[in-house]
From TrEMBL:
Residues 1-22 form the signal peptide. Residues 43-157 form the DUF4397 domain. Pfam families: DUF4397 (PF14344). It comes from Ralstonia flaminis. This is DUF4397 domain-containing protein. It comes from the Bacteria. Keywords: Signal.
Amino acid sequence: MMKNQIRKIATVLALGSLGVLAGCGGGDDDIGQIIGTSAPQYRTVHANPFIQNVDFGVNGTVKIANVGFKSVSNYFGIDSGSAVATVASAGTSAPLASASFSPANGHRYTALAIVAATGTATSLSIIDDPYNKSILSDKARVRTFNASYNANNVDVYVTAPNADITTLSPTMGGAAYGSASPVSTQDSIYLDGGTYQVSVTTAGTKNVIFASQPFSLANNADWLITTLPAGGLGAVTPNAIRVLVAQANGASQTASELPSK
């Protein structure tokens, strides 16, 4: 880890002396993330369709207040070291769920409030993204998260539109409920910008339970593709899902559902 960080710092210094840092697709915050010197960055996602607005906190302090379902916050800095993340009903102090984690400099963290496996409570999951992107890379970073308690483990294919997935391996495979692929603490996958389609299948099969319309994935994009249960509480059927995409563009965040085919 230390050797990797020293190599990246040396690359930054070399590029800076050549005056080319401005052209490599990131500002000072991105460079700090890449070389592991900036404070841990943290964002929140309300991914539980069965509860009202919530507050997200860190170490007893509300950081994101009164946000509704499918809301994604901007990244913001938090202290490194031991931390406890919480989610509570908006304006209340008793957490619906909490999670302990250890933020590290240079890493990005996503806290997702999701439906508990029973479908009647809330869980809080944390993704630790080490953000190992090369300084010179302009590829998009992509990860998936399975927040669909009504689906089994899922495979996610990010392919050319209308591609035949029967001969393809999953782009991100075996995401269990409440877990990411690549798993937390591993880096996101990297894709060239272009036009793609997302297909979600039951893990280990070619049984498609969601297929999106074609979409554009830009270079330097940062996507979290999250599966969500479709329908209201009590009306959710097995494998009925929708897909929410959280997109990071610098400090700014947007969230939108991928239209299905």
